[in-house]
Amino acid sequence: MTSPHPPGAAPPPGCPAHDQGATDSDPLVRLYAPEFAADPHRHYAHLRQYGALAPVEVAPGVTAMLVTDYRAALELLNDDTTWSKDSRAWMETVPPDSAVIPMLGWRANALFNDGEVHRRYRQVITDSFRLVEPHELRARVRHAADTLIQGFGATGEVDLVSQYAQLLPMLMFNNLFGMPESYGHQLISAVGRMMDGASQEEANTANAAFQAYITEMVATKKAQRGPDVTSWFLDHPNGLSEEEVIQQIVLTMAAGNEPLGNLIGNALSRMLSDDRYYSTLSGGALTARDAIEEVLWNDPPMANYAAHYPRRDVFFHGTWVRAGQLVLVSYAAANTQSGTVSTEEVRSGAGAHLSWSAGPHACPVQRHALVIATTAIERLTAWLSDIELARPEQRMQWRPGGFQRALVALPARFTPITPHQAGATPWDSSPSPSTRPEPTSTPRQPASAS
Ligand code: HEM
Fold it and tell me: Whose CA is nearest to atom 14 of ligand 1?
């Protein structure tokens, strides 16, 4: 095993071994620890002292090698001869109830398979999403956004993470996969409980609700096809079985939901914390796309993932990695190897970031995800043009968990708006008892949100 500290290097920031007097046998950087979530870039700086790969802990007692170097990451992601995505042999070395199993446990889907099996599954996903027209996608996002804004618009305050960014992807998926709107809330409630599940029992109940939702969806579409992703999965010439279709739907929803929510949330937090975006909210300098690009470079929604296992012992960028050992890629560390990237650098062509991954398993729906995130932000800021952070003085709090880069909450306030009638837009500005005494800007121009 590699030494926990590189020779002659400083201990990791907040290193429990040094801060709390722990022994030298327990000083690995813990990707799951709140200290890591509070300041990942300081930890990446420490990990870079090992070279291209560094040892980390991804859950109590579960170690991995983390690639922090851009070129090494690119090489690994593109070399499926040396590296496999199949986690089955590795799973036998990890307690079955480990917290990382939901993210790393093998399934019969595109993400955990190699070669021909992978291509067969992935093609179903890429071909089906290709049938989603961008202008239709935008209209669907605007509808989902309006539904959510209607829920909190009259109150003048919102947690943009739990009431907007996390919910919008689920409403979108419910719609894209062809289910009636009423099912959107069933999906939100199941996935919400999966994320919040305090106990194993709650997590199991939520998981069962999610499975029931997907099973009903596939049964509905088997009985009557429609112009939707589920029907396209079922009818794809690659001929997936019903079980295989279900597995690819679960993957697509799971792979899309959390990173999309994080992308929207992280970009909104940048826009609301940075004066250069202020005028954008009423039509000006930096745009939602600038904020999204800044996030993709510096705070990628999937920060560390791309689980791979070498098929044989391999000497990789100066480190021996054993066959079957878990290796993760730090997209966040690789992107920021030469320091965090400014909007000016992005605009003048900073190169290519790895936030969508690269190689055969790169995100297959990048353009769709960008359309969804950009439209969601533009729609929100068009309606709530004076939206601002409710507690600007408070430091952003990040959810622990090394795979994702996700805010705990993003409380904001705005001049309340109310619908002319339930279920309809556009809305009027309508001061209510909860209205802030001094709105920060002139009332919205709803025409810009059409
Ligand atoms: C509509 C939303 C999205 C959908 C449906 C989606 C779907 C998927 C699928 C199916 C895969 C697996 C591909 C394969 O193994 O061949 C994947 C991979 C990936 N996606 Fe997306 N995605 C979405 C949004 C995003 C967003 C917003 C990000 C973050 C910027 C993201 C980052 C990634 C990354 C990094 C991978 C590689 C996974 C890994 O690290 O192993 N995706 N996505």
Answer: 361
Q: Which of ligand 1's atoms lies nearest the C-alpha of 121?
A: 16
Q: For 415, what's the count of Cα atoms within 13 Å in the CB-facing half-sphere?
A: 18
pLDDT tens for each residue of 68-127: 999 999 999 999 999 999 999 999 999 998 989 989 999 999 999 999 999 999 999 999
- The pLDDT-based confidence of 277 (bands split at 50, 70, 90) is confident
C-alpha 404 – ligand 1 centre gap (Å): 12
| Ligand 1 midpoint to CA 311 (Å) | 24
Identify the architecture of domain 16-178+226-449 in CATH.
Orthogonal Bundle (1.10)
What residue owns the CA closest to ligand 1's atom 43? 363
Q: How far apart are the first and last CA of the chain?
A: 58
Predicted local distance difference test score (pLDDT) of residue 11: 54
Cβ of 261 below 6 Å from ligand 1: no
Question: Which residue's alpha carbon is nearest to atom 6 within ligand 1?
Answer: 256
What SS3 state is found at 268?
Answer: helix
Q: Whose CA is nearest to atom 15 of ligand 1?
A: 111
Read off the tokens for 48: 């870079």
Domains of the chain, by residue range, sit at 16-178+226-449
- pLDDT level of residue 193 (50, 70, 90 thresholds): low
CA distance 176 to 442: 36
Q: Dihedral through CA 225, CA 227, CA 231, CA 233, nearest 10?
A: 160
The upper half-sphere exposure of residue 418, i.e. CA atoms within 13 Å in the direction of its Cβ, equals 10
Residues 6+ apart with CB under 8 A from 323: 309, 310, 311, 312, 313, 314
pLDDT at 285: 82
pLDDT of 14 > 60? The answer is no
- Whether the pLDDT of residue 19 is over 50: the answer is no
Is 254's C-beta closer than 6 angstroms to any atom of ligand 1? no
Ligand 1 centroid distance, CA of 362 (Å): 7
pLDDT class of 346 with cuts at 50, 70, 90: confident
SS3 content of the chain, % helix, strand, coil (to 5): 50, 10, 40
User: 3-state SS of 305-365?
Assistant: EEEEEECCCEEECCEEECCCCCEEEEHHHHHCCCCCCCHHHHHCCCCCCCCCCCHHHCCCC
pLDDT at 283 over 60: no
- Answer whether 110 contacts ligand 1 (Cβ < 6 A): yes
